[in-house]
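Hey, can you fold this one?
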Amino acid sequence: MTDLSTQAGATPPVSPDDLRASAAAALLASNRRRRSIRRWIAIGTLPLALAALLFVGKILSMYAFAHQSITAYVADDYAGSEASARGQEFLNWFEPYKAPFNVGTALAGAEKLPEARGKLEESLDLATGLEVCTVRINLGLVLERMGDAARADGDGAAAAEFYGEALTLTTETPEECNSEEAQEQSSDPDRDMQQSKEDLEDRLKQKQQNEQQPPPEEQQEQEPQPSEEKLEELEKKLEQGTQERDQQQGDDGGGSGTDKPWSVSYTHLRAHET
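Sure. Predicted structure:
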């Protein structure tokens, strides 16, 4: 008899070895797909991981540079403080006002006032909220120093202008800067921000008033000092007059002569000349 299993169209039986081989191939393909997925996930998340690493590194470097800048400033090493503060400028995404603020403060300590003013004005443009409080105070102090320097150079008009700018800057300080929160965020919490602001305003008002006072009226120009010949002539005439009065007073039984009136005028002229 003919085996029905061998008839045309019948599926041949699968051996156990073939089944195991097929299962192994399927498992291998699945593993390859998983590895490929993991690879692409790793590639996709690599930029995020690098960004996070850079972010953390930037935070740490900002604190390091800030600490170095503060330490140098307290030690009156203003050049070192400035150098450390400039290290904060690179890729400063958060609190961007701090780098120019610290640089400007260090420059002010070194009496580089125009440069300090520029940096602090840059910081004020970048500051927001309560960040502007300390910036305004330091910028006002720099403008006050610039006014003092102009006054020392004899430029009263420039001094008054600087004092006026500083006074406007401080009087326009937001009311929020008088809060406890602003005091806690101050770059120098040991100093009272409100008191510092009021003291600055009082000084600026007094200095501005002093510079705006009209100069004292110039003394009228005195007559030129008489020549030696003229003095001798006047002295002779005075002696002659004195002798005549003495003679007349002697005849009348009178006393002595009076002071020379020209000597008072001469002394005044000499004092005016000096």
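The chain has a mean pLDDT of 75. Let me know if you want another pass with a different chain boundary.
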